[in-house]
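JOB MANIFEST
job_type = single_chain_structure
chain_count = 1
residues = 282
[input]
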Amino acid sequence: MRAVTTDERTDQREPLPISVCVTTKNNADIIRRCLESVHDWTDEIVVVDTDSQDGTIEICEEYGANVYQHEFKGFGDIKTKSIEHATNDWVLILDSDEEVPSALRKEVFDAFGSPGVVGFYIRKREHILGAWSHQYHVKQPVLARKEVLYYQQEHLWERPAIRDEYAGRTRDLEHALNNYAVRRVSEREAKMMQYSGLEAFQVVELNKRDSAAVLLAKGIAAALYRLVVGRAALDGYRGFYMAFTDVYHYVSTYAKIKDIERLRKRRPEDWTEIWLEEECGR
């Protein structure tokens, strides 16, 4: 008789009362892997979409997801919208290019319901240009109770955080999410152009302009952090390429801030819509 594997025993458990929250925009080529990794062990998938036209919505509906449409006003805003639509007390926040591997799924099953715990910090392991890298994202509380979560504003990246009064009631999980960050160089460069456009937009909206020198310094600091602290130097050309694009991102952001200033003078009434659609693909 064939032995029953650990993964199969895990799959036989009742789904956890967790709402998986995913935000999408034309992600038909990658979203299936994300949904496949969660649909059979969580009892709700919430997708907040921004007018996808490539079949993303139909794929999400195949997996029983509840799909909602919202205008894009920033990453933190759109992710907050997905949390608000969740019907469970617990949410798992995923990007469309991420998946929950079996080891992490089992760890969540074993840890879920721990007395007094209101959130779990999970790191993300990056798959870059065809190989797993040495780089990991800083652990974030992407699995938590809704009422303890909020988003911190950090220029473009608005990161999930636990409210101060609950800070002592979290746990770190050992296993990581898989983040398929970059499949091709052209994909990285397209994302970089989109994200620098979004960051320039948010800098202007928040009126937090930095000088060219400050933005360049931020880019160099980000590159050095990736190479040394993030261990990207161990990834050879992949790591140095990613570090170079970190610098270019900030240089491009400064140039696009100037673009926006010119656009606002020419089109003061509808510059926001023009910029988000033409430069940011939103």
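[summary]
The longest strand covers residues 131-145.
The radius of gyration is 20 Å.
exit_status = 0
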